[in-house]
Design goal:
The protein is an alpha/beta fold. The chain has 6 helices and 10 strands; from the N terminus they run βββαββαβαααβαβββ. The chain has a single domain, classed as P-loop containing nucleotide triphosphate hydrolases (Rossmann fold, 3-Layer(aba) Sandwich), CATH 3.40.50.300.
């Protein structure tokens, strides 16, 4: 399903200095697995998610998803790949505060030019799935943190992607809301989604529905 082969990822800080974020990473994630990437901030967890989502390209090595070398995709094809295959839940939600719940959720559908009926069907599915039907027309900036998180994950699922990527998804939530988010992940896994979570939140460690926990340390897998 997802395969990272000998991944090296470096960033140029300036003309003289280079930072190595990932060093020879090899990782294989099966379809339907839920994998937790553990590690401190700066360990390389988020970089791995960025590569899987084709938001960045490796300095060397290959990223393969469903047999396709996405690390070689031109930008326009990478955007199409993300639109159809990836649901990304960001640490800070990346919602537009002045728009409504509905407007934020359907944003990924704008480039597809779907009929209004199809948009409404997709919207209703995720509103019900994440129990926010009653918030559809509310402005996002007026929602609680937990409600905004549900809007963010609903948006990530609007296209019913095969892969869900979550980057420090509970960093801005209290324990009660974090446990609620974890329950949502349980339900998504039961639907057959392939899920990769990057976190250092101990609430994710030892969960019975997590298939594997992988420790990332200074750009390598322990």
């Amino acid at each position: 399903m997802i395969e990272l082969k000998e991944i090296l990822k470096q960033y140029e800080v300036n003309a003289q200095d280079t930072v190595t974020a990932l060093k020879g990473i090899n990782l294989h994630i099966k379809e339907g697995e839920l994998v937790v990437l553990r590690g401190a901030s700066g360990s390389g967890k988020s970089t791995i998610l960025s590569l899987i989502a084709a938001l960045s390209k490796p300095t060397s090595g290959e990223v393969i998803v469903d047999g396709e070398r996405i690390s070689k995709l031109p930008d326009n094809f990478a955007s199409e790949y993300r639109r159809h295959s990836i649901g990304f839940v960001f640490q800070k939600y990346n919602l537009i505060p002045s728009l409504s719940v509905k407007e934020n959720i359907i944003l990924p559908l704008v480039p597809i030019n779907l009929r209004e009926k199809e948009i409404e069907e997709k919207l209703l599915r995720v509103l019900k799935m994440f129990h926010i039907e009653h918030k559809e027309h509310q402005i996002v900036k007026n929602l609680s943190g937990g409600e905004q998180q549900r809007v963010a994950i609903a948006r990530a699922n609007i296209n019913n992607p095969k892969i869900i990527l979550a980057d420090e998804p509970t960093a801005n939530l209290d324990e009660k809301l974090s446990l609620h988010f974890i329950q949502m992940l349980r339900e998504l896994k039961a639907e057959g989604k392939t899920i990769v979570v990057a976190t250092h939140d101990p609430l994710f460690f030892g969960l019975d529905f997590v298939d594997r926990e992988i420790e990332i340390y200074q750009g390598t897998i322990l």
